[in-house]
Amino acid sequence: MKTSHSLRYRVVDVFTDTPLEGNALAVFPDASGLDGETMQKIARELNLSEVTFVLPATRPDCAARVRIFTPSKEMVFAGHPTIGTSRVLLDEGIVPTGTPGFLLEEVIGPVPVRVDEGSNPMIWLRTPPIVFGAQFERAMCARVLGLEAGDLLDAPPQLVSAGNPTVFVALKDKSAVDRASLDAHGAKLFRDGYSEPLCVFVFAPTGEGAYSRMFAPEYGIVEDPATGSSTGPLAAYMMQHGLVSRVAGTRFVSEQGTKMKRRSLLHVHIHGEGGEDGIDVGGHVAPIAEATMHLG
Length: 296
Description:
With 296 residues, the protein is of the alpha+beta class. It has 2 domains: 134 residues, Diaminopimelate Epimerase, Chain A, domain 1; 147 residues, Diaminopimelate Epimerase, Chain A, domain 1 (Roll). The protein contains 6 helices and 18 strands. It is globular and about 55 Å long.
């Protein structure tokens, strides 16, 4: 990196059309010349759930390459950064307005993005392949989350991943979701036998879909207002355990971030029976600010 460098960046709120709600994201539309170490330092400086850096794609089928950082590590894939960065790419003309869909090159591979036209377009991502993993004892999960065993539904807590391993814990109602908590010590108990940090996602089924919260203290995120990378796996988990319809075309909404006063609405569209033709996660984006960072 040059000794003196000015970087323009945008701030957007994702999974909301209301400014100062949703999940805030900083996007650097031109990160050419930055190395990974500097990107990580910038993410730590801004201290948002994630920061993205846009680079020229290395693949001819992708519109841009995107690197995603939490305050403590680089992510292979993340939802609200994909959605928010896509909106900035459209606003900046890096992706032409009116483009119905494109691919973003992320560490996990090309991520398909679809755009519903409008003054504030709904932007959708296609969830990468979903893998089911180990199940966890309900009593342990309740204890670590500061809950009673009776607060949990019968569905077994389980690890499900679309790139970011997440433990899903189904709770009986919104009150139980709001009472849940998780610190770094508790997070380590969930990953006994796993070398990588895990996200822990608690939710209660609702008439609209789900009422959710996500904790990731080992990623430097005490609580995330909106977690698009976990919402596709949430849909898969809910279908697996009969908590939402498996019918092709099913749509529902996961409300997240409300407890921390950053209400987010994550839309889900299931393709094919049981999602075998893909699960899309979408939302609106509210542009907030534009600024310049001076380094050196």
